[in-house]
């Protein structure tokens, strides 16, 4: 597989930042409409109220019924299960994680929860769990992309023990996730970040903007501070396509080819 080795930006340490997936839209990173009203650093946990045990409040049966939480939770879990069984990107991520000593158990490591605002999901390194926002993720296609995105953050944590509190490490993982799963030519053109000219430069701009948006949601940094960190680590992290070895744009068959090629490197006996 044509993939770069472990990025030197990532070193052994602990992590507490939760990495977010946000809904795709046509707004810029500085005008996303998503806010995190925190006085100090909470590392993204604001968006996941069920992650905050001190502030978590038990909801009544009537409240859950009114918000159809049981139904949305069931649908979310069904979508996750389908993604684990049939989606090429998710299957590759799960197997790559297991090959690096971090097996993914559905009930233990993936949680469907209610989230705030327009956040689709996150990876919580404190509990080693991927969160899928059941109130915002309504289709299997979106669920699979969010799941693959967050499993990539889990892979970075497992492979290299990244410290998500370190802005350089956080930027690197967000660059990789945006590069692998979000900035296809079609998506970038629809958001005004790409055109038929200067495709490579426009793709890199899309990746930078997506990483910038994600970083500013979970950290109290200015746009300039985040941009400087992203620029500093961009080349190394943009070229690190492990474990896919390619950018897996939607509907181009690249995820399928990456999955087939990865059988030379990972054991797929448990999922065939």
Automatic annotation (TrEMBL):
GO cellular component: mitochondrion
One GO term (biological process): mitochondrial protein processing
Composition skew (Polar residues), residue ranges: 1-35
Keyword Ligase belongs to the record: no
Domain of life: Eukaryota
Enzyme Commission code: 3.4.24.-
GO molecular function, one term: metalloendopeptidase activity
Protein keywords: Hydrolase, Metal-binding, Metalloprotease, Protease
Start and end residues of each stretch annotated as Disordered: 1-39
Pfam families (UniProt xref): Peptidase_M76 (PF09768)
Broad EC category: hydrolase
PANTHER family found in the cross-reference section: MITOCHONDRIAL INNER MEMBRANE PROTEASE, MITOCHONDRIAL INNER MEMBRANE PROTEASE ATP23 HOMOLOG
Protein family according to the UniProt entry: Belongs to the peptidase M76 family.
Name of protein: Mitochondrial inner membrane protease ATP23
Organism: Biomphalaria pfeifferi (Bloodfluke planorb)
Species lineage: Eukaryota, Metazoa, Spiralia, Lophotrochozoa, Mollusca
């Amino acid at each position: 597989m044509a993939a770069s080795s472990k990025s030197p930006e990532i070193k052994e340490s602990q992590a507490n930042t939760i990495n977010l997936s946000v809904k795709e839209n046509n707004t810029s990173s500085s005008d996303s409409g998503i806010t995190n009203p925190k006085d100090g650093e909470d590392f993204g946990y604001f968006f996941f109220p069920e992650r905050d045990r001190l502030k978590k409040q038990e909801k009544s049966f009537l409240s859950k019924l009114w918000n159809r939480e049981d139904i949305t939770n069931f649908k979310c879990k069904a979508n996750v299960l389908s993604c684990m069984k049939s989606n090429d990107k998710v299957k590759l991520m799960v197997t790559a994680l297991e090959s690096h000593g971090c097996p993914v158990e559905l009930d233990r490591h993936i949680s469907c929860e209610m989230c705030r605002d327009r956040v689709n999901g996150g990876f919580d390194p404190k509990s080693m769990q991927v969160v899928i926002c059941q109130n915002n993720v309504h289709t299997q296609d979106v669920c699979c992309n969010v799941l693959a995105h967050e499993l990539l953050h889990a892979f970075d944590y497992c492979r290299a023990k990244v410290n998500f509190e370190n802005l350089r490490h956080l930027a690197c993982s967000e660059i990789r996730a945006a590069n692998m799963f979000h900035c296809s030519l079609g998506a970038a053109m629809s958001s005004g970040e790409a055109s038929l000219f200067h495709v490579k430069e426009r793709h890199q701009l899309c990746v930078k903007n997506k990483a910038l948006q994600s970083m500013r949601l979970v950290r109290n940094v200015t746009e300039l501070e985040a941009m400087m960190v992203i620029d500093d680590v961009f080349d190394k992290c943009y070229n690190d396509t492990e474990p896919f070895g390619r950018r897996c744009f939607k509907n181009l068959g690249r995820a399928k080819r990456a999955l087939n090629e990865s059988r030379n490197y990972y054991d797929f006996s448990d999922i065939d």
